[in-house]
């Protein structure tokens, strides 16, 4: 089958045997490139791996599904509490095991979420980043009427803007590029920050973005760290002086009977313009080099780059 594998630090189109083993076979329809994929490559953590954890496709009976790329044991304390993202033996497809930048993959049936009517798998790979945003916002416990700011307007920042609007919140968003500003407005957010905020969502994850987030936050407010800290970050005394609470988040879960993936898919079904706004570039698998080049160059107009399989 066709696939994209990391060889000598580069995303490389390959022909490889079809997957075998226990689980459900998924015919992949779309697979997105995540910013974390780029970091994983740069840190040498996925050499030899088929990438792809933003995945949608069809099962053998034709059911359209999004794939929650987290294999869980189902019986550790974290799994029983609904926190599969903290499973004692968690397997992340596309990171610790081969993922969805391929024609097919096999995953446990617990990873599959039937797509709502009207959501095509050709756009449903963005359910995964939307689920990240759902989880990150939920972790902050933002209430109706709260003043919300988002630092960064890459895919996760824009997903956060979309989720905030779906939850009745009106986010102000700090965006660097013109195409990101236009996307913020299409999603119903406001470009630029003004004053102090109850909740600031850091969608970048750097020393600089954390400093910006703490500056934008009101005293005793909350910074939701949704962007991943790939390198150590320094936090200055402003955190203490303002008594700001930092709430990190990772992936998504189903705690309390509330599935972040289910909510993300429902938001996409209710707001189809999210897909047309976020997905800016599409490539076949055999154009892997061009696809990853586009994903790295945010100034070129790329937001979400997706493989059409």
UniProtKB/TrEMBL annotation:
Residues 123-308 form the Glucose dehydrogenase C-terminal domain. This is Putative Alcohol dehydrogenase GroES-like domain family. Keywords: Metal-binding, Oxidoreductase, Zinc. Residues 22-116 form the Alcohol dehydrogenase-like N-terminal domain. Its cofactor is Zn(2+). Pfam families: ADH_N, Glu_dehyd_C. InterPro entries: ADH-like_N (IPR013154), Glu_dehyd_C (IPR031640), GroES-like_sf (IPR011032), NAD(P)-bd_dom_sf (IPR036291), Zn_alcohol_dh (IPR050129). GO terms for molecular function: metal ion binding; oxidoreductase activity.
């Amino acid at each position: 089958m066709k696939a994209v594998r990391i060889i000598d630090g580069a995303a490389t189109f390959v022909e490889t045997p079809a997957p075998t083993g226990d689980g459900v076979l998924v015919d992949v329809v779309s697979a997105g490139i995540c910013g974390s994929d780029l970091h994983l490559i740069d840190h040498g953590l996925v050499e030899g791996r088929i990438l792809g954890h933003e995945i949608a496709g069809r099962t053998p009976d034709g059911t359209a599904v999004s794939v929650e790329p987290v294999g869980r044991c189902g019986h550790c304390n974290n799994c029983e509490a609904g926190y599969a993202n903290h499973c004692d033996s968690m397997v992340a497809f596309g990171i610790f095991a081969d993922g969805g930048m391929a024609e097919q993959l096999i995953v446990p049936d617990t990873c599959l979420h039937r797509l709502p009517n009207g959501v095509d798998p050709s756009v449903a790979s963005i359910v995964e980043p939307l689920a990240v945003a759902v989880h990150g916002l939920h972790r902050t416990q933002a209430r109706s009427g709260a003043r919300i700011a988002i630092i960064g307007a890459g895919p996760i920042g824009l997903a956060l803007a979309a989720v905030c609007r779906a939850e009745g919140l009106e986010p102000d968003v700090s965006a660097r590029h013109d195409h990101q500003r236009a996307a913020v407005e299409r999603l119903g957010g406001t470009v630029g920050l003004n004053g102090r905020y109850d909740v600031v969502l850091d969608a970048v994850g750097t020393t600089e973005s954390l400093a910006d987030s703490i500056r934008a936050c009101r005293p005793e407010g909350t910074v939701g760290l949704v962007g991943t800290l790939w390198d150590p970050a320094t936090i200055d005394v402003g955190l203490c002086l303002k008594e700001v609470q930092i709430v990190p988040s990772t992936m998504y879960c189903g705690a309390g009977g509330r599935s972040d993936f289910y909510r993300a898919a429902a938001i996409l079904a209710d707001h189809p313009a999210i897909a047309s706004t976020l997905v800016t570039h599409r490539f076949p698998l055999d154009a892997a080099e061009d696809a990853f080049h586009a994903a790295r160059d945010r100034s070129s107009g790329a937001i979400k780059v997706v493989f059409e399989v």
